[in-house]
Amino acid sequence: MTAHDPNLSRRNLSRRTWLKGAGALVIGLHLPGTARAQSSGAGAAFRPGGNATFAPNAFIRVAPDNSVTVLVKHIEFGQGPFTGLATLAAEEMDADWSQMRSEHAPADVKLYANLAFGVQGTGGSTAIANSWEQMRKAGATARAMLVQAAADAWKVPAAEITVVSGVISHASGKQGRFGEFAEAASKLPVPENAPLKPASAYKLIGKEGAVKRLDSYDKSRGKAQFTIDIHAPNMLTVVVARPPRFGGKVASFDAAATLKVKGVVDVKQIGSGVAVYATGMWPALKGREALKVSWDESAAEKRGSRELIAEYRALARQKGTTAGKHGDAEAVLAKADKVVEAEFVFPYLAHAPMEPLDGYLQWDGTEALARFGSQFQTTEHQTIAAILGLPPEKVKLETMLAGGSFGRRAQVSQHLAAELAMAAKAIGPNRPVKLVWTREDDLAGGYYRPLFVHRMRGAVKDGKITAWADNIVGQSFFLGTPLEAMVVKDGIDATSVEGANELFYEIADFNCEVANPKVGVPTLWWRSVGHTHTGYAVECFIDELLQAAGQDPLSGRIALMGDKHARAIAVLKAVGEMANWKGPGPVGDRARGVAVVESFGSFVAQIAEVSFVDGEPKVHKVWCAVDCGVAVNPDVIRAQMEGGIGFGLGHALYGELTLDQGKPVQANFDSYRSLRIQEMPEVEVKIIASTVAPTGVGEPGVPPIGPAVANALAALGQQRPRQLPMVGRTV
Amino acid sequence: MVSLKVNGTTHSVDVDDDTPLLWAIRDNIGLTGTKFGCGVAQCGACTVYVDGQPVRSCVTPVSAVGDSEITTIEAITGKEAEAVQAAWTARDVPQCGYCQSGQVMSAVALLKENKKPTDRDIDLAMNGNLCRCATYVRIRAAIHDAARALEI
């Protein structure tokens, strides 16, 4: 999701409320426009971590044992918000990192909305960006009140008190820790404007080695609890037989053989297919295997990838909707001596998070508790309540750690929450259910990165690029949905064209058009969204035009940026210095390619060093320079660049989800090839020092790697791959 | 009823013979550190030891295990396990963390066999363990860290 809200960090927190717990200091911050009644209902009875002293409208809890627990409104599925949001609070509290803890906040839009969305949810690499001021203010307020409580106890002026690494001190020799003052602080009035530190005083934010991830220990020891790990008395495991083609429906089914499988308890038709309920996963799978379902495919999508690509290629030759234009590219192209053309084809891609989709729900007919890796808590909460026919305040939603998402859990359609609620409703109250998708369910389950075609044309004259045209064709996953108003403007779905309708490069005559054909395959954002294809098309094509113009890929890019894109220029220069760039090569059997992409407010440039071994590109090393504003957790940022590079590279090299007559072909990781350790390049990351408010890091590492590799292949004398994946393509 | 010796304790579990060890461990014995990722031995998230050797529990039926000693992530011990888990934490290897039980199991098994693995050795030992977050750079570094720690 894109959320480039420049006002984000300047929004004021209008009201603060202290909530008292038994010996615990709890801070709640009411958000602008939502400051109504204190939270009740969702989350009030249900408490993350099971701590009885917790009150729900709160970000920070200080316990008598000195532990500081941050309630994190964003789901943790790898990108580090547990650590990042705790860092922001700890910095302003002057806490010691060893006393910090994190837990997921409950679902409560009044307290925990993403300030970029207005609802509780995670996406668009916004976790740090929208929490930057909010969590620091929460920490500063907590600190001020703890200091006041100490001042009152010691009968000294608060201004004379210092706090270092969680120890509150006065020159008189008096000393104490947070826990001692938690209860007294909870009785004090809330200061209106607790001052924030100047950046020069930071001890944690941006400091190498000051902060370690709060979740590494448990995750290295099998102790982290994911949704699939939930067990409850009387719980049933549910798998669902879903239609083999998108848009298919159950015509009839015969469950006789299924019901004979030991451990199968029941079979019910639900909205998404036929649900098999069993005492465990294996009987559920065996039961589903034995199920006979006849499908009504009269309305199902029956086109395959091959047919769709042909249709898209034809559409790319027709007039689309103008998404960006200056000058008259068509006129220049028509008269040009030298026109370079390239057509790029991008397959459907699955997100394939390591933990397939799953969810747990228990209800007794009047109240419900759902526990799963919810990425859009507000809407999922509403969906579950609506399907169960319960008032929202009777439904609690607990966010679980999730084994990856890459966009898969950020569901515009709410289909997982809906299926979970339907499965629970169909079996009736007092039978807790754990719904589990298999890998086959995941890969065949749709919600893919849409298939896209870019038809590019460029004109080069006297060593200059004089015209650029890009005709983009692909499905929109927003048009026609309730979220349409959020990203669709003048008929343009921003997620189809972001990164392509405005370029860094100053080209006098420019045109970008888009067509969003309707196809019955459910699609969804996928880590870095539109940039997954626009980054590749644009950065390959500019490289090709620079080559045609006889210019260096790196200095040629910088020259085309004029004086408007200082941050993009800076990351390009930085990555060039890191790699000691002397042109693309080749040197020996290796060559280098470069690419630069801005996404989610962050700028990333990468250089890939590549050879060609046994018919496949081998990526040896990647240099990466990133400017994401203030680097809150440098090591988490490095990890996201490393992981983003691996994710982007794996899909550029091997990733494709092919449809054959509407049916997904790749069923598991044997055919949906995923990057493995021997294919992972060495990665060197430089983080550009910045004082700009922080922007995203979860996604921006992904887009540049594919084109950087393609551009290196060009330097090795090959064509930049026009169709992805680069290796083992089936279409 | 099938008898399984897991982490030093014998469990009688009421499952069919064809039940994969993975689901007996998770659903019947209640040890959930071992993860399901693919069900077809392609991702390694389900790695456990059978008589000390790493196997993919998702394709190992309980009938094939007999009275072998099964060890899961919850019960790995010894200097290699300690070194690997310490290195994993110090390097902040995990992102989502879901595959990491399997990664750690494979890494510990490698170091038990090979005290000073090369990058090539690591590739061979770890290439059955997928990480969709692509934490591979740190997995490799952490294995080298652990090997160095074991030298001391």
From TrEMBL, chain A:
MF annotations from Gene Ontology: oxidoreductase activity
Pfam families assigned to the protein according to its UniProt record, in alphabetical order: MoCoBD_1 (PF02738), MoCoBD_2 (PF20256)
Domain called Aldehyde oxidase/xanthine dehydrogenase a/b hammerhead: residue spans: 221-299
Protein name: Xanthine dehydrogenase family protein molybdopterin-binding subunit
UniProtKB/TrEMBL annotation, chain B:
Entries under InterPro entries matching the protein: 2Fe-2S-bd, 2Fe-2S-bd_dom_sf, 2Fe-2S_ferredoxin-like_sf, 2Fe-2S_ferredoxin-type, 2Fe2S_fd_BS, Beta-grasp_dom_sf, Diverse_Oxidoreductases
Keywords annotated in UniProt: 2Fe-2S, Iron, Iron-sulfur, Metal-binding, Oxidoreductase
One Gene Ontology molecular-function label: oxidoreductase activity
Keyword Repeat: no
Superkingdom of origin: Bacteria
Keyword Iron-sulfur annotated: yes
Ranges of residues in domain 2Fe-2S ferredoxin-type: 1-76
PROSITE patterns according to UniProt: 2FE2S_FER_1 (PS00197), 2FE2S_FER_2 (PS51085)
Name the UniProt record assigns to this protein: (2Fe-2S)-binding protein
Organism, scientific name: Bosea caraganae
The organism's taxonomic lineage, starting at the top: Bacteria, Pseudomonadati, Pseudomonadota, Alphaproteobacteria, Hyphomicrobiales
